[in-house]
Amino acid sequence: MTGSPVPAHRRAALEEIAAALAAAGRVVLTTHVNADGDGAGAAAAVAAWLLGLGKVVHIVNPTPFPGLYRHLLPDQGIVRDPAHPETASVLRAADTVFVLDTCEPRRIGRIAGSLGRAHVLVLDHHVASDAAIAGIVLQDAAACATGELVYDLLGVAEVARPWPAAVREGIYTAIVTDTGSFRFSNTRRRAHEIAGELIEQGVDPEQVYRRIYATVPLRRVELLRYALDHLEVDDPYPITFISVERGVVERLGANADDLEGLVEHARSVEGTVIALLFRETADGATKVSLRSAGDVDVNAIARALGGGGHVKASGALVGEPLEATRTRVLAAVRAALEAAGASTRTVRAEW
Ligand SMILES: [Mn+2]
Fold it and tell me: How does DSSP assign 221-253, residue by residue?
């Protein structure tokens, strides 16, 4: 069994990270707030690999490990709540902290304050920002997911194939979720190559799909019903947006997982160049998700709002109520569309 070749420009950094992990004894893995399938899958895969090498491994995320991806964990006991008093000693005892799917200190919340004496390693595929976490960093926006970089890390470390089930399923899930099930523009040939090799190793795509997408709690369907009912088109601009008020999330008992993917419904509306999701948080701030279906760089817009991400998919947390945020963001997006010469919605005359 041979893997997809590791891109040459990643090798040097991956070799350094692999050497640091080989020398590590107690490793803490972490990812950004509201971990997604990439952050959770990448962490589960790395945890399974390192546990197999006899390391002591814990996952300490700034926000709870998502229930949707708990089945990927090689051992449920490795996840620690950052607010729990005993977690401070886990962080203190770690000789190595491995940050996945972000390289920004503010995205790992209170974990950023615990990086002190440990060796810090970072794997990330977001667009570089000014304030990166200090350590051995591989940041490559050419990777479809952090899962792709984990795949390369195991390749460089020459881990014998087939890999443990939790390793290959974590990486596969990371790639499936971050490529929108192989639909987004980051779905390049290599995403399929890696997926193909993981299937050869034993991943069951239907089972992965069922666990993530084919079974949803009723509240998520109720939330979708509300969202579609509140979908708006910013005519004549090619902007489609959904707003979810705080009361709705509370009434349905919805969480961050439940909101993932909602913005895709706005993006799918014909003529949409920019899709937005506004979601009011419990403390009265507003989370904004931005998606670009064209050439407009939503990462630049998100950065101006204090957030960031990718050229075609970004987000920001704005400390203002929903309505004020929506007014401000719509103005910024309209201006970006005008600057790009894409300020009117074009639709087919007939279907
Ligand atoms: Mn990612």
Answer: HHHHHHHHHTEEE-TTSSEEEEEE-HHHHHHHT
Classified by CATH at the fold level, domain 220-339 comes out as: Diaminopimelate Epimerase; Chain A, domain 1 (3.10.310)
CA 112 to chain centre: 18
Angle between the 146-156 and 189-201 helix axes, to the nearest 10 degrees?
A: 60
| Residue 317 three-state SS | strand
Nearest Cα to Cα of residue 68 among 27, 35, 108, 32: 35
Compute, in angstroms, the gap from residue 348 CA to the centroid of ligand 1: 34
**Range(s) of the chain covered by CATH 3.10.310.30:** 220-339
Query: Which stretches within 202-321 are classed as H helix?
Result: 205-209, 218-229, 246-252, 256-259, 262-267, 298-304
Both tokens of 5, joined, read 């070749």
CA of 350 to the centre of ligand 1 (A): 38
Taking 80 as the threshold, does the pLDDT of residue 281 lie above it? yes
Token pair in block for residue 84: 């729990």
Q: How far is the CA of 19 from the centre of ligand 1 (A)?
A: 24
Residue predicted with more confidence, 18 or 342: 18
Q: Indicate if the pLDDT at residue 350 is higher than 80.
A: no
Q: What residues does CATH 3.90.1640.10 cover in the chain?
A: 8-213
What is the CA(166)–ligand 1 centre distance, in A? Answer: 18
Question: Could you tell me the distance, in angstroms and rounded to a whole number, from the CA of residue 39 to the centre of ligand 1?
Answer: 6
- C-alpha 135/C-alpha 185 separation (Å) is 30
CATH class of the domain at 8-213: alpha beta
Cα 174 from Cα 40, distance rounded (Å) = 7
CB 252 within 8 A of CB 216: no
The β-bridge relationship of strands 96-100 and 119-124 is: parallel
Q: pTM of the full predicted structure?
A: 0.87
